[in-house]
Amino acid sequence: MSLSHSTTISVLAACIGLEEGTGYSSFTIILILSFVVMYDSNGVKLHTLQQVEETHHNKLELELKLMLLSSESLLQLLQRFMKSSVQMKQIHSVLITNGSLSTSNPSSFEWTTTLFYNTLIRAYLNLHLSQTTLLLFTHMLSHNIPPNAHTFTSITKAASSNLTPPLLFHKSIYAQALKRGVLADPFLQTSFIHLYAQSRNLFSACKVFDEMCEPCIVSCNAMLDGFCKNGEMGSAALFFESMPLKDVYSWTSFINGFVKNECYNSAIRIFQQMIMQRCLGDCFVKPNEATFVSVLSACANSTGVIGLSYGKQIHGYIIKNESRMSAFVGTALIYLYGKTDGLEYAMQVFENLVNKEVCTWNAIIGTLASNGKEKQAIDMFDKMIVEGQRPNEVTFVAVLTACARGELVELGLQIFNSMLAWFSIVPQMEHYGCVVDLLGRAGFVAEANDFMRKMPFEPDASVLGALLGACKLHGKPPAYSMVSAV
After folding, report:
1. What is the b/e burial string over 441-467, where b = at least 16 CB atoms within 10 angstroms of the residue's CB?
2. Does 22 reside within a domain?
3. Which residues contact 193 (CB under 8 A, 6 or more apart)?
4. What is the pLDDT of residues 294-323, one digit of tens each?
5. How many folded domains does the chain comprise?
6. Which domain covers residue 43, as residue numbers?
7. pTM beyond 0.90
């Protein structure tokens, strides 16, 4: 046992009344720290050492029971603290110490060790520590612990969420699953479809799908989503038409695929087909929140009057068929009306929303700013703070844009400085660009250039463009040389 680990054990032991000289072995001390778990009418509950000892006749009985129940108790602790990084690492340390993660432990059954690994892997995955999850999997294989279908399901999720996972690693995971004979599990097959599609390997994703005996709707949706996310909308359309059964996730994924690939009119057309099922007597699939958000985004970005016209129809459909408008659907409507000169409608939607998320406030502030209502945008920002809604990075981009367009220099600088001082938000490139635009529009070109030079990072094209635009607007050609010198 390392010195740091021993110190940790001693401190924790003292906290529950377990001190030196109590007659327990060092191994049992570790167990007691981990296993002061008792069952009552309320479920699992942690107790002190005294409470644990009172339920047993002597220390030997307690030690024997702890030895026998160690695996079950550790699993209980593992499941209880799987959302806490600190406790997870402590329990992981105990698992290593008492041999629960090794086949060399004589009291350990093979399936129990696999269960320990699965629980740890799932816990680290829930903590968004995908790299640790993948390392734990390789450790599991190196110690000859057999993974099962549950192991691979978690590992494919970890590999999908990893920033730069090598394709070769994905294939090695698949090879291991094939070797273990667990690929018949349709849930695991679907996970591999997601994994390959995420890494833009549609060939392998299609191969996994084609090898499925009876693809279920979930697997079909995964394959459809893979086509959409990789920009293969032609293949997605053919696949969508061939699907024997479509649920709301199928329709929403297909609509969202067109939106992400900037085929806005096609997205609107698919939504129309979805609604028309009721009229045609087909099995009607009711749109959900995500469906409305996707199609309203298509309407907001569609050129001409088609987007606004159909957006209003969807708004009417929502009012007629939904008991209450959600914050996210309301936000999508605000963006729609804000981009199509429908400020009055946007304000009505905002005022009628029962629940407002931070994205809702961002949408209305941005809408007011882009429609020439800069002072109202600032007032809305103040109202947001008063009502207890905490602004985020996007909020400050919207409100700083309002200040720039209204040439509210002093107020804009105050708001910029408040980001870190009041809200602990570190300004990013977009925020610095807004301040350069703020100073430049108001004619303070030299100050804008000086501010840009003092940025903690190199200015990007948008920041340089804001300064050059200010030079052109105010007829200050010397600033061009200043920009070129940056």
Report:
1. bbebbebbbebbeebeeebeeebbebb
2. yes
3. 205, 208, 209, 219, 222, 223, 226
4. 999 999 998 877 888 999 999 999 999 876
5. 2
6. 1-98
7. no
